[in-house]
Amino acid sequence: MIQLLYIFLGALFGFALSRAGATTYDYYAGLFLFRDFQLLQVIGTAVGVGVVGFALVRKFKPRSLLQRTPIQITPKPYKKTLIPGSLIFGLGWGLAGACPGTALVMLGEGKLGVVFTLIGLILGTYSYGIWETRKLLKVDVPEFENVSQDRDKERVPV
After folding, report:
1. Which residues, given as ranges, of the chain have pLDDT below 70?
2. How far is CA 158 from CA 49, 67, 144, in A?
3. pLDDT at 64
C-alpha cells in the first residue's frame, strides 16, 4: 500500500515539474544561452523551498510521516572529485538539454530523445560505481614468490 503512495507522490511531483516547464528543451537552451530565465526561477524556487525545509527540520526535529522515525540531516564530507564531477554533470546537462531529475518525466511525456540521456546516466553511474569500488578495494598486498600450486603450503613474502 505504501508503494502506491510513493507512486502517487512521484507522479504528482513529475506533473509539477512538467507544468513548471522543467521538461522543455527550449527552456534549457534559453537558460544556458542566457536568453530565458524561467527555468532559473524554477530552480531558485526549489532551492528556496529546500533551504526553508532544512531550517524547519533542524529547528523542530520532526519525525517521518510514515515510519515515525526521527529525521536526521547529516553533512557529507567534501571530496576532491566534487568539482570535476560537477563540471561534467553541467556539461552533460547542457549538451543533453535534460536534467537527470526531469529525465523520467520527459520520458513520461513521450520525449523519446531523453532515452539517450538516460543511457548516459546509467553508464555514468555504473562507471562511477566501478571506479569507487576499485578505490575501496585497493589494499597493499605484498608480492609473493615461490608460491606453489598447493594452497596448503606457506606463502613467503618478498
Report:
1. 139-158
2. 60, 55, 6
3. 87
